[in-house]
Write a structure and sequence with these properties.
Elements: H1 2-17, H2 20-34, H3 38-41, H4 64-75, H5 79-91, H6 94-119, E1 122-124, E2 127-129, H7 132-140, H8 145-179, H9 183-198, H10 201-230, H11 235-246, H12 256-272, H13 279-283, H14 291-318, H15 332-344, H16 347-378, H17 382-401, H18 412-446
Antiparallel strand pairs: 1-2
Length: about 475
């Protein structure tokens, strides 16, 4: 076991330690410039999907809105509460600025990877499936099948197994600390809820996210806005502190600007997942008129996750008096919880526990679907899907009831590092194709077509599933 931990530790150092974060930042900036700052020029169009616009006529398919909310539910999790708190504690208020910066860059990366997933999606039964693995096979060819399989295995190990164990542990810990509920009861309830949802397939998963995500997001944002209104006169000072600390003009912790930047970039990348290739698995399920339209929509999920939800946590902490710059051994959930209590009273800790529960359930079903999608890419055996469901339900229970046992899942971050490298390499090779379909989208907009339509006959050289994309000619 020690040998394995050491091996995965080296992998983690080689990926997250120094290679991956600069790679994500540089590539995100490249995508931003070459695409003409699509995350800004198309910002207004991102919201049309929330009004059920730009959708196809198939009422039985997953809508763009449902795919968006499932993606938001996956990106938004306990890390938006705990992770942001730790980043501020270790990096100072300036970490928030760099968190915002990487989110704006990540919006372009998300558009690229999610548009490609839509382009290369396949019609399997009544549903669409796609994602990085399928984009590699159908975009780059059979010679890269080994790369697609490597990605799929890492996706299952990190998201479906490792991160779901952590989600179970986070919910059980919060329920035990604030409500005194035994971990076993919480683990059992989570296992039952998860089983009910995932055995309903992607449609039930999407419908559940369609209900849970708006409730949790609106509720948490409303709580944060209440805190902001109570402390409205302090907002200019807090924003000034965020900017000053971000550039080293005001040192809040040892390391100054460097520490603030490192913590903010790391938190932002972990939170919004742009570039990891995870969200495209969900983006591909939507039945939309053009691949770029879903890419634009998925950019919005990065904005909601980091600019909106993470900022709520940041302001709750920075407007309070619980936060201590440079403190070590920070429990992020406790810091956020105590900060809320200092603003609104003891009742708010129970609200936060409920928010964590909803955040975690949405993340669990999202993580499971990523695993199922990767598994069906490697095997069409239905028994394997049932085995995965059984394993995921069991792993959630194990993570919940054993406070220290989640250290067993030491492989999660290194596996995510590998899948991110694989995904980014594939995006580089497939980027010329992305530019072609982006030009097609912009050309139709310029011609006055409000909702551009994708026609596979315009791209006969691409391996496009004609069952997923019907010709308009």
């Amino acid at each position: 076991m020690e040998l394995l931990e050491g091996l995965f530790g080296v992998i983690g150092d080689l990926t997250w330690g120094w290679a991956l974060i600069p790679f994500l930042v540089v590539l995100g900036l490249f995508f931003t410039f070459v695409t003409g700052f699509v995350q800004f020029t198309f910002f207004g169009r991102m919201f049309s999907v929330l009004l059920n616009k730009n959708q196809t006529a198939d009422k039985n398919a997953i809508s763009g809105r449902e795919a968006l909310l499932l993606s938001v539910g996956g990106r938004v999790g306990g890390g938006n509460i705990a992770g942001v708190a730790v980043a501020i504690s270790l990096g100072g208020p300036g970490a928030v600025f760099w968190m915002w910066a990487i989110a704006l860059v990540g919006m372009a990366t998300s558009l690229v990877e999610c548009s490609l997933a839509q382009l290369y999606k396949r019609k399997e039964g009544d549903a669409f499936r796609g994602g990085a693995a399928r984009s590699i096979i159908h975009g780059l060819g059979e010679d890269y099948r080994w790369l697609a399989y490597l990605y799929a295995v890492c996706l299952i190990a990190s998201f479906a197994i490792g991160f779901n164990a952590f989600q179970g542990n986070t919910v059980a810990g919060a329920a035990q600390d604030s409500l005194g509920i035994d971990r076993m009861w919480t683990g059992g309830l989570l296992a039952i809820i998860t089983g009910f949802i995932i055995y309903g397939g992607i449609k039930r998963i999407a419908k559940t996210a369609d209900v849970i995500v708006p409730i949790m997001a609106i509720g948490y944002v409303a709580m944060a806005l209440l805190v902001i209104l109570i402390n409205i006169t302090e907002i200019p000072a807090v924003i000034g502190s965020i900017v000053s600390n971000a550039f080293g003009w005001e040192e809040a912790v040892g390391g100054g600007m460097g520490t603030a930047m490192a913590q903010g970039l790391r938190r932002g990348l972990f939170s919004n997942e742009a570039g990891l290739g995870s969200a495209p698995n969900v983006a591909a399920t939507a039945d939309v008129a053009h691949p770029i339209s879903q890419g634009i929509t998925q950019s919005l999920s990065v904005f909601i996750d980091t600019i909106l939800i993470c900022s709520c946590t940041a302001f709750v902490i920075l407007l309070g008096d619980v936060y201590v710059p440079g403190a070590e051994g920070i429990d992020g959930v406790v810091l956020t919880q105590q900060s809320l209590v200092s603003h609104l009273g003891a009742w708010s800790q129970y609200f936060l526990t409920g928010a964590i529960l909803l955040f975690s359930i949405s993340s669990i079903i999202y993580n499971y679907y990523l695993g199922e999608n990767a598994l069906t890419f490697m095997s069409q055996n239905k028994l394997s899907v049932h085995i995965l469901r059984f394993v995921v339900i069991g792993i959630i229970f194990m993570g919940a009831v054993a406070p220290g046992a989640t250290s067993v899942f030491f492989f999660s971050d290194p596996m995510m590092g590998i899948l991110a490298i694989v995904n980014l390499l594939a995006l580089i090779m497939l980027f010329p194709t992305l530019i072609r379909i982006l030009k097609d989208y912009k050309k139709q907009l310029k011609a006055g077509i409000e909702h551009p339509q994708f026609d596979p006959k315009d791209f006969p050289d691409l391996d496009i599933d004609l069952k997923a994309w019907k010709s308009k000619k």
